[in-house]
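It is worth pausing here to work through a concrete case rather than discussing structure prediction in the abstract. The textbook approach is simple: state the sequence, then state the predicted structure, then interpret. We follow exactly that order.
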Amino acid sequence: MYLETPKKKVNKSSKEVFDFLNDVKNFETLMPENISKFELINENRFLFALTGMPEIVLQKKQQTPYSQLILGAASDKLPFTLTVDIVSINEHESEVTLSFEGEFNAMMAMMIKSPINNFIGTLSENLSKI
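Step two, the predicted structure:
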C-alpha cells in the first residue's frame, strides 16, 4: 500500500524543516488532535497512539540532510515506512511531501487506508504551520 500527500509549501528553508523533523520530539506538535499518547523513547524513536488505534513506535531509519527523512515502524508486525521529502524552493521556503508505504494483506489495507491517509494529511497540514 502506498499513500502520498500533496506537496505542501512550508515557509522555512529545507534545512530548517529537516532539522525540525530530525528532532523526533517535534513530531508531537504535528500530531492530530485525537492523539491519546506520545512518548519520546530516545533521540531516534518515539511512541504514539491515536484514539481507537494501537500504539505505534516510529524510529529514524535513514536520512539525507535537508532533503529526506525516513521513519519506520520499530515492530515487524506492521512493517511500514513514513518518508518525508523536502524540496528547497528558495532560502526561505520549501515543499514537503509525506509518503506512507507498507505491506499489508488486503483486509488490513482496507481497514487502515482511510485512518492512515487522514493521519499523514494532518501531519502535512500541521507541518505547513511550523
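Step three, interpretation. The chain has a mean pLDDT of 94. The longest helix spans residues 106-127.
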